Amino acid sequence: MKIKKFEFSDTITGYVKEFDGEEKFTLETSDGREYQAKFGANLFARMIRNLDEPYRDCTGQIKDLLKSGQLVFVYGVYYPDGEEEYNFEAQIIDFIAKQPGKYRFEEADWWIKQAESIADFFIEAQFGGAENGIDYSQYRTDLALTGARKGDYRQETDTISRLVYGFASAFMLTGKDIFLEAAEKGTKYLQEKMKFYDVDENIIYWYHGIDVSDGQEHKVFTSEFGDDYDAIPMYEQIYALAGPTQTYRITGEHSILRDIELTIDLFDKFYHDDEQCGYFSHIDPIMLDPRSESLGPNQARKNWNSVGDHAPAYLINLCLATGEKKHYDFLEYTADTITEYFPDYENSPFVQEKFHEDWSHDYTWGWQQNRGVIGHNLKIAWNLMRVNSHVAKEEYVDFAEKIAEIMPEVGMDKQRGGWYDVMERTLAEGENFHRFAWHDRKAWWQQEQGILAYQILYGILGKEEYLKYARESAAFYNNYFLDHEDGAVYFNVLNNGIPYLLGTERQKGSHSMSGYHSIELTYLAAVYTNLLNTNKPLDLYFKPVAGAFKDNKLRVEPDILPKGSVEIEQVWVDGKQWNRFDAKDLTVEIPPVDYRPKIKVRLKPIS
């Protein structure tokens, strides 16, 4: 195909290699390609900023900031001035740091402040602000870009639970009581409105949601999401536990633990394949049968969500809160299953995500067909490394590092930065580049997976290439996804970083988006950046109810970290120092008081 030359605009992300001191500079991309750029006539520059920070113009300092090794995002126009090449003129330069290698998102409080801002956005959007009180009867699944709500509405169990997770995590990082109030009231709302207790089977499962119209509520039992219509998908039951479990880590409320364990009983009785291992992805709503013909394309199927989502959604947090061997054994079982069945490198650089009952590959299901989700590959990597910190297995690390090696070559945009969405798993004849399933946009949750995969791999293994990809991923996300006008984060951006604001991807709340991924990222990024990657302390907050935890012992390990990597430095109860703690065991004795104490724990890395 011959294309007549034309001008076009785009982004180049790279490291400054040379600057002539006047108007021309050379960029080197992540994979070592060089581009020449010159200042455009109306060039301006900005410094990266966190949510709730003012605009930081640095146009007057461009020449001082263009230092060798400086990571920058340059948006400009390619002009076809010559016979063979384009000239690139910079219009906007986004600087990530004042000095090369000194990244603001590695400041001790960067991610904590971001969590607070996002949680504040949802308090305002869902409840009209803290001054109006937290009332989940007003909760909306769908929120506009600005956070505005509609009239009649649906309340989906999973999106409430995910938002509750966000509020609970924000409390753990900041200690702001309004976030804990929102987490506890949201958990109570789920228990009262969305939970079904089956007396005969002694199990709990969760409604898809509630429709509210003209003040009347109508419970929706089975999923009405297109891929899962009229079934009970495993992932909805899994994510119903996300918020309550994180809240349980803080409070130790017994009713929450009971609901979690009875839901796990649902998984073991009706979703688990006792013959060929793993978990089915769907059961029918009448007989709770994964093999029912009524399930159609979901009959006797297994997938990434039914096996892999347990660990990040609730199971690791349940392990951290209880220390129970049975929960750690369950966690290890899911990791073993993933390691056994998901690699498919003789056929594709992407893992296999869809399976039949016998673990043969399913290439015909719905939208996925034979496609790979970039974020699921990366999510496997960082969760295997977390599990490995509890029970070290060579196959976990090998699989995680295999993903880390391959994904930048097939799923990362090394020209502009960031991670793509869904791609064809195999190349057709004559193709050299894996095709996009629909588009080359970049979703917020996919960026989370890239950031955490390489932050956690670097924190545990210490390899410099992992730090490089972690920083590049965090730089793209923090530069382009933070909504400085309306708050929180954008759903999608174009490949060049410009926000994509059409359809449901314009919204801040939907079936796909709540306060989960964005605050999960801030929580885990704060943990790994501070404690393992930059050797800084981290404060966490808890507020247990009376008689909360076994042996009156509060477990405060922030994540499943390598053994001996952190310890408790100091503890405060209601602002006063408290010395009854085991620094190395990461446990605190809960004071024998007749009210709920607020416990602040300072963790420090052990170099």
Written overview of the protein:
The chain has 607 residues and is α+β, with helices and mostly antiparallel strands. The protein folds into three domains: 95 residues, Nucleic acid-binding proteins (OB fold (Dihydrolipoamide Acetyltransferase, E2P), Beta Barrel), CATH 2.40.50; 428 residues, Alpha/alpha barrel (Glycosyltransferase); 68 residues, no CATH class. 35% of the residues lie in helices and 20% in strands. It contains 15 helices and 25 strands. A five-stranded mixed β-barrel has the order 1-2-3-5-4. A four-stranded antiparallel beta sheet has the order 19-25-21-22. A three-stranded antiparallel beta sheet has the order 6-9-10.
List keywords for this structure.
single chain; 607 residues; alpha+beta; OB fold (Dihydrolipoamide Acetyltransferase, E2P); Glycosyltransferase; five-stranded mixed beta barrel; 25 strands; globular
SSE arrangement:
Elements lengths: L7 E12 L4 E5 L5 E14 L14 H4 L5 E9 L7 E9 L14 H18 L25 E4 H18 L2 H18 E4 L4 E4 L2 E5 L2 E5 L11 E2 H6 L2 H10 L2 H18 L10 E2 L17 E3 H5 L1 H13 L2 H17 L12 E3 L14 E3 H15 L5 H17 L11 E3 L17 E2 H18 L2 H17 L11 E2 L23 H17 L4 E5 L10 E3 L10 E8 L2 E2 L3 E2 L4 E3 L9 E7 L2
Parallel strand pairs: 3-5
Antiparallel strand pairs: 1-2, 1-4, 2-3, 4-5, 6-9, 7-8, 9-10, 11-12, 13-14, 15-16, 17-18, 19-25, 20-24, 21-22, 21-25, 23-24
Helix pairs in contact: 2-3, 2-15, 3-4, 3-6, 3-15, 6-7, 6-9, 9-10, 10-11, 11-12, 11-13, 13-14, 13-15
